[in-house]
Amino acid sequence: MIKHTTITIESKSEPEFIDISDQVSDFVKESGVNHGLINVQSMHTSAALLVNENEPLLLKDLATHFDKLSPKTIEYNHDNMTVRTVNVCEGECANGYAHCRAAHLMSNVTMNIIDGKLQLGQWQRILFAELDRPRTRTIQLMIVGE
């Protein structure tokens, strides 16, 4: 059996870590799949997914880590619109830092479904990481199982 859906998120800041675990878990329950896998996929290159604790101080630490890893204050070739000719959209913003941050995370996570329930460890949550400016984001969910 294969089930799929798309969810949308409205981010409000950056970086922002949005817990989507309940939405994913609800879809698993509604799917009727007892055993299988669910793939959760971000449809963006300047946002990502991670499985970790949804603990405010840890999320603050992650934001600090990303600021050190890919600071907004340095120059990125991606942001130089005088030479960049590929994948340029009208109103393109300087977001090379967000793409570099996303490269250190995952664009998808795959989780087990056992006895009709999403399997998460004690503190594990599925977090959507907004690494660029606030906006509407899309995440696809696909379950393969029985």
From TrEMBL:
Gene3D superfamilies: YjbQ-like (2.60.120.460). Pfam families: YjbQ. InterPro entries: UPF0047_YjbQ-like (IPR001602), YjbQ-like_sf (IPR035917). SUPFAM superfamilies: YjbQ-like. Belongs to the UPF0047 family. This is Isopentenyl-diphosphate delta-isomerase.
